[in-house]
Design a protein that fits this description.
heterodimer, A: mainly alpha, B: about 350 residues, alpha/beta, three-stranded parallel β-sheet, 15 helices, 11 strands
């Protein structure tokens, strides 16, 4: 039982790159079976046509995250009910690269695609937090002057604000921006500073990215529930509640 | 025609309808079955309960049903067929322009039958495009860049052959290019919903109008940025519309973003029939108002004048329809009389 929980905790670290939400939270994990040191994870997506490249990224991340467990020697990933399931399952399980799996259709690997969606996730998490601060009464200038320490000391952080801040700090960290107390809290994904004049335009663009991502998330979840309409696995429920701490 | 409580008449053009055949007899393979299953999930997920169709009807419905749903129940004065062929999935085309043409003929002035092309058809396809223009007088095409063709999983509007087709369209007076972006796989390592090729095509062909169906969803942000640059890019609201029922707040946000970035003159109503019936969409849309906070945030509003543009005036402009003249032309036809 403990092994299953460990596997699910690893799966909670795997994100749908388009939605910036974990597979356990999205309930995409269908089944986990463990036999000695071998783990099989099956997952499924909202439609038969979900983009093959994103499906491949998820399959690869499932394999890599679960492989991090010291007692695991072999991971089999099974994507189900998908137009490219056979190729993806074979490719990921035999540790082929994306290009090797789809030699005639891909020109390269998925790194650039991953990065462009992490940047969208950065904008999205940042904008949500900034909107929360604006709703709490902070002016633009005050927001731009905040340091990491200042952010953590804000008195009005309720559960919602805390989660938004944690998610934002986590992606800052991922972008190598560090989270030292004296650093400016709100900067661009490339590390450059924001200025008050262009801040409204910056926010309008970030809002559009956040909205698109969120909308996409609701749409995908709605389709997923329509397609499968099943109860989530019990371990997934546990990971859903914890997942914000992992991202 | 939709009439407001004050008796004002709103001329409605449903810019995106289809008469499809996805029956098991017409399915060529598992992909044909999965394609319509996916459509049906869209339908089930976003339709109000009283407008849910049984699966069997959804697979294949007849012309009378379409006419009834779109024109009698559905307030539309006119509607535009946007056919996709999907010949790798279905034996006869999923959307068949010849069947559409029969209906166009039966209901003069009511229906516009667009064509379609696939640049992978090479020279032969160019000839067919010319045939469609001469035989059916098409003014628009629906393009499905995600269509499978043998080992190919789609194409881009900036491919050299696509450019030849677009040039041919311009020459033939086919000015309205309705582009649907699905999960295209060429090249597979790029974003499958990338709308950047619309940008390239729109700036290379300023004489053509590019209506991006589903307003670029799920890449609304990329679409909006392109539409601010290219003035011949339009937002087709099909698929975004039904969120008015299940997620009205998101619908409001999308509409206000589109009004802010793209503008009220470049948004077109489309039901995507038979994915959703236009009747309930139009009723809800006419009753809909943007929440105050969104109006404040984006400085936009969905006034009656804006709704008129979205529901009919913008499409009328693109298709050269004089609404006043068309209204009197249609006022005595068999559909008007039977209402």
């Amino acid at each position: 039982m403990q092994q299953r929980e460990e596997v699910f905790k690893k799966l909670a670290l795997v994100n749908d790159p388009e939605l910036d939400r974990s597979l356990t939270e999205l309930e995409f994990i269908n089944e986990v079976t463990i036999q000695d040191s071998s783990v099989t994870v099956s997952f499924r997506l909202p439609t038969y046509w979900c983009s093959t490249n994103f499906a491949f990224i998820m399959a690869e991340d499932i394999r890599d995250r679960v492989s991090e467990l010291p007692w695991v020697s072999n991971v089999v990933v099974r994507l189900e009910d998908h137009c490219a399931a056979a190729e993806i399952n074979e490719g990921v399980s035999s540790r082929k690269s994306f290009f090797e799996t789809f030699p005639n259709m891909a020109k390269g690997e998925l790194q650039e695609l991953r990065e462009s969606f992490r940047i969208k996730a950065y904008f999205s998490r940042q904008e949500k937090l900034i909107q929360y601060l604006i709703r709490s009464g902070l002016e633009h200038a005050a927001i731009l002057n905040l340091t990491i320490q200042g952010l953590s000391e804000l008195p009005f952080f309720e559960a919602e604000g805390t989660v938004l801040a944690e998610r934002y700090l986590a992606i800052r960290e991922e972008f190598g921006q560090g989270n030292q107390p004296e650093q400016t809290a709100f900067i661009r994904p490339d590390g450059s500073e924001l200025d008050p004049e262009s801040f409204p335009d910056y926010l309008a663009s970030a809002r559009l990215i956040r909205l698109s991502m969120e909308f996409n998330g609701h749409h995908c979840q709605g389709l997923f529930q329509t397609r499968y309409g099943t109860e989530p696995l019990s371990e997934m429920e546990a990971c859903k509640n914890e997942s914000s701490a992992f991202v | 025609m939709f009439k407001t409580a004050n008796g004002e008449e709103i001329f409605v053009i449903d810019s995106h309808i289809a008469l499809w055949d996805a029956s098991p007899e017409n399915q060529l393979n598992i992909h044909g079955e999965q394609f319509i299953n996916c459509f049906y999930d869209y339908h089930k997920n976003l339709s109000p309960a009283q407008y849910l169709w049984p699966k069997e009807k959804f697979l294949k419905y007849d012309a009378e049903t379409l006419i009834h749903d779109v024109f009698t129940k559905g307030y539309a004065d006119m509607a535009i067929f946007q056919p996709v062929f999907l010949t790798d999935f279905y034996k006869k085309p999923f959307g068949d322009i010849e069947k559409n043409a029969e209906l166009v003929k039966m209901y003069p002035g009511r229906l516009i039958g667009n064509g379609s092309f696939d640049p992978r058809d090479g020279e032969q396809g160019l000839e067919y495009l010319e045939f469609m223009a001469k035989t059916y007088g098409i003014k628009g095409v629906k393009l499905y860049t995600a269509e499978w063709r043998g080992s190919s999983r789609g194409y881009k509007l900036t491919d050299p052959w696509a450019e030849r087709y677009l040039a041919k369209c311009e020459e033939l007076g086919i000015v309205n290019i309705h582009a649907h972006k699905g999960p295209t796989l060429t090249p597979l390592d790029r974003d499958a919903f990338d709308v950047a090729d619309i940008d390239g095509a729109a700036s290379n062909f300023p004489g053509l109008n590019f209506i991006v169906e589903h307003c670029g969803l799920p890449r609304l942000e990329d679409f909006c940025w392109i539409a601010t640059q290219e003035k011949n890019v339009y937002a087709g609201l099909s698929v975004a519309m039904p969120f008015i029922h299940t997620r009205p707040r998101y619908f409001a946000q999308i509409i206000s973003e589109l009004l802010y970035w793209v503008g009220e003159d470049r948004m077109l109503f489309g039901s995507d029939y038979a994915l959703w019936e236009p009747g309930w969409l139009i009723e809800k849309f006419m009753a809909f108002e943007l929440p105050e906070d969104l109006k404040q945030e984006t400085g936009t509003d969905l006034t009656l004048a804006v709704k008129r543009k979205i529901l009919g005036e913008n499409a009328a402009r693109l298709y050269g329809i004089d609404i006043a003249a068309q209204k009197s032309l249609l006022s005595q036809d068999k559909l008007a009389v039977s209402r």
